[in-house]
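Progress against Task 2.4 (sequence-to-structure conversion) is shown through the following example record, which the project officer requested during the mid-term review.
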Amino acid sequence: MAEQLDRRLHAYREDLADIALEGKVEAAEFVEGRPFVVRSPLVDLKPRPSRGAGTDTQLLMGDLARVFEQRDGWAWLQAERDGYVGYAPTSAIGFRAAAATHHVTAQRTFLYRQADLKTPPVATISMGAALAVAGSRETRNTLYAELAGGRFVVAGHVAPLDQVEPDWVGTAAKFLNTPYLWGGMSGEGVDCSGLVALALRMAGKAVPRDSDMQANRLGEPIDGSSLQRGDCVFWKGHVGIVEDATTLLHANGHTNLVSREPLADAVARIAYLYGEPTGYRRVSL
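Structure tokens generated for the chain above:
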């Protein structure tokens, strides 16, 4: 019975499981997850508690999660936004001190100790990071948002959480030439499904994280005969965004970048290695 549940989206092991799964899976103990928030700028979520393990996805500053276990410097958790389960360093999470009010809208921005861009930044934070803005301060005609806790970001790089960007394809295009990163979900690097998920996050739409999940649950299936801007093309293990009827935008291992290329060229090139597209989906916001 347990194997029918996707372990990426359901927190269960032989020894421990989410109490919400009691009666659905077998485990020695069931616990209720405790609410935490990501405090680090960017956190790799891993399939096992080891720095040498691969990265399944990433969590951004301000992301909420339920933590089921903390042991040996690792937290076993489930992200609230997309339900992804994995391990993150306990040093990267903490209790939420103030509710987020804004999110980062620039691809990347800097976190400063002072309201002054001439001072050394203490961190780089990604588009999509959620911040608690407590006030503002102006220095040499540049306005800064002051965060709860005393750090600063350029005010023009953030917006209220309820302010979304409906042109999610345009948001994805901001990532052109960003390095491809397996499991990447930030302005530092993205993979194919991470680009889709992050761009749609900025449009106010929560979507599944991985391409196989998106291929089954994102938007509505279409036949692919008349593609339009914002449609998604799927291959086994890959997804691309239709920028216009003849152009594909995607993070890919061929260029190791987020790139755009003629859709027909991408289909022919990918078919040679992995076959024809497996499906098409239309996203409505």
